[in-house]
Amino acid sequence: MAKIRIKKGDTVQVLAGKDKGSTGKVISVDREKSRVLVEGVNRVTRHTKAGQTARGSQTGGLVVQEAPIHVSNVAVVDPSDKKPTRTKTRVETVERDGRQKAVRTRVGVRSGKDL
Q1: Are 11 and 24 a contacting pair, CB within 8 Å?
Q2: Residues contacting 99, CB < 8 A, separation 6+
Q3: Beta strands 69-70 and 35-38: pairing type?
Q4: What is the domain partition of the chain in residue ranges?
Q5: How far apart are CA 26 and CA 9, in angstroms?
Q6: pLDDT category, 1, cuts 50, 70, 90?
Q7: pLDDT attached to residue 13
């Protein structure tokens, strides 16, 4: 299975499907199923059963919410030019307290700038 390079909070653009071209923020990532939940993308109508809450208010009816989308159908948006890009990690060695320490930063392949 391929490594998922998308994290919660990233701004992504949809590359394929009914919402192609739309952008949104990643709400959650399911690494086992290789799926992400994107805010405002792949919205579906759910029929929920009527019931009552502890306060006595009615619940249920039609609820519109986001459904997961496959990781291969989204790409991280590069903040410099607002276009989709792949990501890679750059490893830098930093000296702290007299010791060498490796620091990893995510970088956009398109521009080479930090994400």
Answers
A1: yes
A2: none
A3: antiparallel
A4: 1-77, 80-115
A5: 5
A6: low
A7: 96
Spatial separation of the C-alpha atoms in residues 89 and 74, rounded to whole Å: 19
Express each pLDDT in 85-114 by its tens digit: 999 999 999 888 888 899 999 999 988 888
Query: Helix (H, G, I), strand (E, B), or coil: what is residue 10?
Result: coil
Q: Span 1-77: which CATH code?
A: 2.30.30.30
For residue 106 the two structure tokens come to 């995510």
- Tell me the one-letter amino acid at 93: T
Q: How far apart are CA 107 and CA 115, in angstroms?
A: 5
Tens of pLDDT, residue by residue over 41-93, are: 999 999 988 887 777 777 788 889 999 999 999 999 998 889 999 999 999 99
Q: How far apart are CA 33 and CA 17, in angstroms?
A: 18
> CB neighbours of 19 closer than 8 A, spacing ≥ 6?
41, 42, 69
